[in-house]
Amino acid sequence: MQNLEVSIQSINPSFRSGAVGLSRAKTHYKGLTNDPKMAVKGEQVLLSLFAYGKSDSKSFESMEKVIASVHSALNKVNKKVRLGEVDALYG
Description:
By secondary structure, this protein is of the alpha+beta class. The chain has helices at residues 2-11, 56-82, 86-90, and strands at 18-29, 40-51. The protein is extended. The mean pLDDT is 85.
């Protein structure tokens, strides 16, 4: 998750009209049956996106920039996952 945070920060460090919140939580999902084999433990990452502006249109312009930055950062992290650098992401 630190890798994602660094990627997001490096895209547009001077941008002040938006923010991205990152949270990680342990999960234990159970299937819709009573079968204990259907349970899955793991982690989830929650991204919260925030945009600011003096009007609705300015806020939406800011949100476009936030979404573009997150999209770019997630693509960078995804590439690292595909290249087998998973330990660096979660270590």
